[in-house]
Amino acid sequence: MTIKHEPEVNWELAKEHGLIQEEWERIQEILGRVPTFTELGVFSVMWSEHCSYKNSIAMLKKLPREGKNLLVGAGEENAGLVDIGDGLACAFKIESHNHPSAVEPFQGAATGVGGILRDIFTMGARPIACLNSLRFGPLDVPRNRFLLNNVVKGIAHYGNCMGIPTVGGEIYFDEGYSENPLVNAMAIGIVKHDEVKSATSHGDGNTVMIVGASTGRDGIHGATFASVEISEESESRRSNVQVGDPFTEKLLLEATLELCKKDYVIGIQDMGAAGISCSTSEMSEKGGHGMKIDINKVPMREPEMVPYEVMLSESQERMLVVVRKGFEQEVKDILGKWDLHAEEVGMVTKEPKIEVRMDGKKFASIPAADLCLGGGAPVYIRDSKRPAYLDVLQNEDLTNLPEPKDYNEVLIKLMGSVNIADKGWVYHQYDHSVRTNSMVTPGSSAAVIRLKKAPNKALAASTDGNGRYVYLNPRSGGKIAVAESARNVVCSGAKPLAITNCLNFGNPYDPEVYYQFKEAVLGMGEACQMFDTPVTGGNVSFYNESPTTAIFPTPVIGMLGLVENLKHVTTSEFKDAGDFIVMLGTIKPELGGSEFLKVIHNKVTGNAPAIDLHFEKRIHETTLALIRSGIVKSATDVSDGGLAVSAAESLVRNRNKKLGASIYISRKMRDDELLFSESQSVIIVSISEKHLLDLEKITSEYHVPSVTIGKVTKDGILKINDSVKIDTEKLSEVYFRTLPTIMKDEH
Amino acid sequence: MKKVGVVVFPGSNCDYDVYHVVKKILNLNAEYIWHKDTSLRDYDAIVLPGGFSYGDNLRAGAIARFSPVMQEIVKYAKAGKPLIGICNGFQVLVEAGLLPGALITNTGLRFRCEDVYLKVANQNTMFTRDYTPGQVIKMPIAHYTGNYFATDDVLKTLQDNDSIIFQYCDANGELTDDANPNGSLLNIAGIMNREKNVLGMMPHPERACEMILGSTDGLGVFTSILGGK
Q1: Which alpha helices (H) appear in A382-507, and where do they start and end?
Q2: Number of A:B CB contacts under 8 A?
Q3: Across A492-626, where does the E strand assignment appear?
Q4: Are A128 and A159 in contact (CB under 8 A)?
Q5: Catalytic: which of A17, A97, A157, A620?
Q6: pLDDT digits (tens, 9 = 90+) for A41-59
Q7: Which of A66, A209, A311, B138 has the fewest CB atoms inside 10 Å of its own CB, making it the most exposed?
Q8: Which of chain A's residues have a Cβ under 8 Å away from the Cβ of B54?
Q9: Which of A161, A431, A747 is closest, CB to CB, to B113?
Q10: Rounded-to-integer distance, Cα A155 and Cα A165, Å
Q11: B 138-197 → A contacts, CB under 8 A
């Protein structure tokens, strides 16, 4: 499609661009006139939810966004930046690519990875690891298998080619995600403090350059598209999805990191959502300057593109670089070495306006700040209403449910539930060992990546977010998402440092959805405050609804932790027969929102498990103290599937030995509650017998209840009280075979 | 001090990993060789590293073989000097005709990244002399196009010349189908030329050189050729 004649700009056209009446009026107020077609396009993408955060920023500002280790504040740069000592900083961020992945899963997921990687290396940081948090509908639906297969292939395609290991993440399945898969990609990079680059622009007369790929018509209005519910109409917007080229991005990565070492580079920003519109206006706003852009000079891959299209294109693998005047050739030389374009497309101006010209004609002239978040972009606090379903579900009496007769059978079913079963089918398609830093690879509580530049240190990272809990209790669910990710990082031997988050919700104009959003954010904030893990940034994805379903409200937390001594690196599987199994914390009868309820009773009901953040924090400190004392042989938390699944996983994940476990716990509750409650703040460790006293000393110091619940055995049988007695081999079979069997016919 | 050259094609991504092993683990010299270079300095060994040279466009390794530096690499190999291609490097060596056969898409039609066991089928070479005959070693694979294919004649020649160097096996050294991750004929994971100075292998020895990463079984490839064990 080519645009031959620019349409007349009026309220009707503005509405088609997704703007509301007051925004349309505000634009005319800012400009003092009716916008041009190009200007309307630019405003509509910059003020879309995706770029402006207009319906979320008021709440996001309530999150703790400061901390002693933070080198830049949340949202100030393309990614968060945390000091990790030794003159090094870690840049990390998670971002959604849900909507593109729903219509074109391979490219949608691939460009999600590409986008988040650019956010990292545009700061001068070399990406060292990726994680992914994915949600799909049930796999008995062919479309969902297709989505899973192609999302995984897309992630593999991009990450593997880039040579950046995909080291972790998680996947859940539930009906609510059926037409709305969630694809959240996280990346982590390392940079020396003095080599960090900013996304800024200043210095009247300095040169604006576009480097990397050329600009085509792909992804026009991608940001706007990401800001509406999926409908049949949006299905037809397939051309909104960008197409990724990881090979070009690999070259761009190397060239950018070379550029970032140069003083003559004033600022640099990647072009993701809203392309040139976003990078020019955000950089200008940050540096308090403006830009003149000449569309004729933008390298294009398609003929007859008009300014509207060029400004809105979301072609991938491009960067905007502001260079001190006179150093253009140096930039071209660096990019040329990597066989990439570097073109001068404009200059920095004192007047803080974005001015766009083509063939000498002015197509747009907009004050940069008015386009941006924190400037003139609208900010809304939406109506909120506590959904009626909450009281109904939270008060449901779960003790009326019949007790299962055969717990072996229940445990087998749970181990074979795709939410619990091994995800090797997925992560064996990702290169997780390239760059030779991956100490703990997918499958354990958190991924652990050693740092070659800081020998003896490692980073731990985990993504978590149980949508069911948030659905049943948004406030608790928000707290638990942070608590669980912190716990996972702690179980791997790391101290939690900071989080990035991806908030996946429905339509914020629905007061009940906004209530879920607001409460979940407040819950996350409380937890972050308690754990001293500030929020470094992330993104919000609203409108995850389709005509037939809505997703569970799903905040995904990406937690970063620091391992201060490689000896502390700990994994989840039991190691040796004879070791004692110790439980820190207490199991309570709380089956609400559990995988057990879903798998056995087909119910998502009850209240989310209770969480006491003070106690949770003590559990983290205790576990870390135990690990640092050198006595912990394995550590894992109780989460999906409860204590029984946690124990079973610790057995089957040791694939070299056929271990068993004999567990006995005295209880004052039903067996199903004991075995499958997903009680929070419970960690299972294994230690040698000789360290039992050392353990008790430490746990009593922290006032944390600990009880020896059993022993690792060599008989290859898992026994729990008198209710479970089953061969590890059987558990292993179902745990490892489930997903490959379901996916065997997908190609 | 012994010196290793690591070739960097556009899209190479295991270059740094090899460099790290030579410099930091073996404390020897390593240098990158740019793909546009038209002359080579003297090296004790050259490595064509893994990655996605030219984005695997057209066919894995098919474009890299036309890189300016490859003319010099071919001369270097013909002079009998040690040359290793790992993963994408193996694919480049095959495309360049320095090793026989072809690497085709894995039978499962998926990228596979996992630890595999390898049997050292020929220990009597400059790249494997630090292993014991028939030793079973463990290291990662990470590829989509690692299924070794050749005509019966070529396979027979490889066998007759003891040019099959590594084969996928189980933990006990048995060459089973289950242990073969990609469908390679004869479970072939690595081969050498007739002159035994050019090695191509799909698994990544450079990823198995430190115990904290799970294995040091890959070190033997480097120590065999460079000393320093």
Answers
A1: 389-394, 407-415, 424-427, 467-472, 474-491
A2: 83
A3: 495-504, 535-541, 554-563, 580-584
A4: no
A5: A97
A6: 999 999 998 899 999 999 9
A7: A66
A8: 247
A9: A431
A10: 11
A11: 140, 142, 144
- Residue from the list A161, A428, A429 with its beta carbon closest to the beta carbon of B52: A161
The answer to whether A302 and A315 are in contact (CB under 8 A) is no
How far lies B172's CA from each of A338, B137, B176, B180, in Å? 46, 10, 10, 14
- Parse chain A into domains and list their residue ranges: 11-46+198-371, 67-196+432-566, 398-413+570-742
What is the per-residue pLDDT across A329-354, written as a single tens digit (0 to 9) for each? 999 999 999 999 899 999 999 999 99
pLDDT tens, per residue, chain B with 229 residues: 999 999 999 999 999 999 999 999 999 999 999 999 999 999 999 999 999 999 999 999 999 999 999 999 999 999 999 999 999 999 999 999 999 999 999 999 999 999 999 999 999 999 999 999 999 999 999 999 999 999 999 999 999 999 999 999 999 999 999 999 999 999 999 999 999 999 999 999 999 999 999 999 999 999 999 985 5
Q: How far apart are CA A401 and CA A730, in angstroms?
A: 27
For A254-286, write each residue's pLDDT tens digit: 999 999 999 999 999 999 888 999 999 999 999
Q: How far apart are CA A605 and CA A597, in angstroms?
A: 8
- Is A668 in contact with A587 (CB distance < 8 Å)? no
Residues of A in contact with B55 (CB under 8 A): 161, 245-248, 250
Domains and CATH numbers, chain B: 3-226 (3.40.50.880)
Interface of A with B (CB under 8 A): 156, 160-163, 245-248, 250-251, 338-339, 427-439, 450, 452, 566, 569, 747
Fill in the DSSP letter of residue A203: S
CATH superfamily, domain A67-196+432-566, is PurM-like, N-terminal domain (3.30.1330.10)
CB atoms within 10 A of CB A297: 16
| CATH tag, A398-413+570-742 | 3.90.650.10
Give yes or no for a contact between A101 and A151, defined as CB atoms under 8 angstroms apart: yes
Query: What is the ipTM, given to two decimal places?
Result: 0.97
CB contact under 8 A, A430 and B111: yes
Residues with Cβ within 8 Å of residue B214, at least 6 apart in sequence: B115, B138, B208
Shortest alpha-carbon distance between residue B26 and chain A (Å): 15
* Shortest Cα–Cα distance, B162 to chain A (Å): 30
> Do the Cβ atoms of A247 and B57 come within 8 Å?
yes
For residue B87, indicate whether it is catalytic.
yes
CA–CA min distance A455, chain B (Å): 11
**What's the CA gap between A483 and A462, in Å, rounded?**
11
User: Measuring CA to CA, which residue among A510, A501, A528 is closest to residue A383?
Assistant: A510
| CA-based nearest residue in chain A for residue B210 | A436
Query: Which of B10, B51, B140 is the closest to A338 by Cβ?
Result: B10
Do A429 and B112 make contact, defined as CB atoms within 8 angstroms? yes
Catalytic site residue B14? Answer: no
User: In the block, which residue shows the tokens 């240190």?
Assistant: A457
Residue B147, min C-alpha distance to chain A (Å): 16
At A376-404, the pLDDT tens digits run: 999 999 999 999 999 999 999 999 999 99
Specify whether the CB–CB gap between A715 and A661 falls below 8 A: no
CB contact under 8 A, B52 and A245: no
Residue with tokens 């001015």: A355
SS3 A439: strand
Cβ of A428 within 8 Å of Cβ of B112? The answer is yes
Q: How far apart are CA A206 and CA A290, in angstroms?
A: 11
User: Which chain B residues are Cβ-neighbours of A569 within 8 angstroms?
Assistant: 212
Report residue A238's pLDDT band, with 50, 70 and 90 as the boundaries.
Answer: very low
